[in-house]
Amino acid sequence: MTKPRLWITRRLSDATLVRADRDYDCEINHDDRVYSSDEIISRSKEFDAILPCHSEIFNADVAARLDPRIKIIANHSVGTDRCDLPALAAKGITVTNTPDVLSDATAELAFLLMLGAARRAVEGDALVRQGRWDFWSPAFMVGKQVSGARIGIVGMGRVGQVMAKRASGFGMQVHYYNRRRLPVELEAGAQYHDSLDSLLPIADFLSLHCPATPDTTVFMTAERFAQLPDGAVFVNSARGALVDEAALLSAISSGKLLAAGLDCFVTEPGGNPAFATHDNIFMLPHIGSATRETRDAMGFRALDNLDAFFAGQEPRDKL
Ligand code: DGY
What we know:
2 domains; 12 helices; binds (2R)-2,3-dihydroxypropanoic acid
């Protein structure tokens, strides 16, 4: 039987590529360069399926111009904000993602951002690294303690729930806002808020874990930052599109926020150069799910979805 022709648009983990190459007639992007939308459109006639990452864009225009040969887009990501789902559905294209398998890694990174921001990691690392550490005193590099503080989690999906567990382990008081309250057993003692207006004023630490959708785009406005307690720490490991970056900068410059930890930016790759002038913004380059274990698991989950689809079944993660 002829194997389906699959286009893997980025360099995935070795184990993923070995399995994909075994089961599909694969084109693998060994150079790992990012294809433009025009290239994706013009080459789509060569493939039955695409396995893209968050770096490729499938907006309404791309969806409309994809060749009808493409039957499925099996994303290697949980976030599908770069896919216009209604437009792809209208074209008869199945879309899947990779939930669950990256929740631990992403929550770990959110915790790193939170601790790094609260305990002045950028400033401290630079002092030691640059040989400028020539002084110590009890008043030196004093940060904000995480244990005992209140964390506000926005979006209590899979990653939010892992974040809540880790925060409880650190002795934090966990509060969350979600569209729907979780069943009590999943709340694990966390306190539900039915609005951001209720959550933000008590969030000593605020961590975003919701997807970027038309409803959540730029929901962190100047007004929202103003609702946080003075000296709060803001953490974003979800999506840059959730945040008004100018408002975040103002909240940092004015001292309203003590610090921020960011893995996601409006412009990616690249980030926001204006953040770099602030030592109290601890930044990483969108690497929430970047662990060896998680990359394998994401690749396998995307392949599981493709296998189900080409076996005539409904893929587990069909959106
Ligand atoms: C995701 O899976 O959505 C991560 O942000 C990586 O793309």
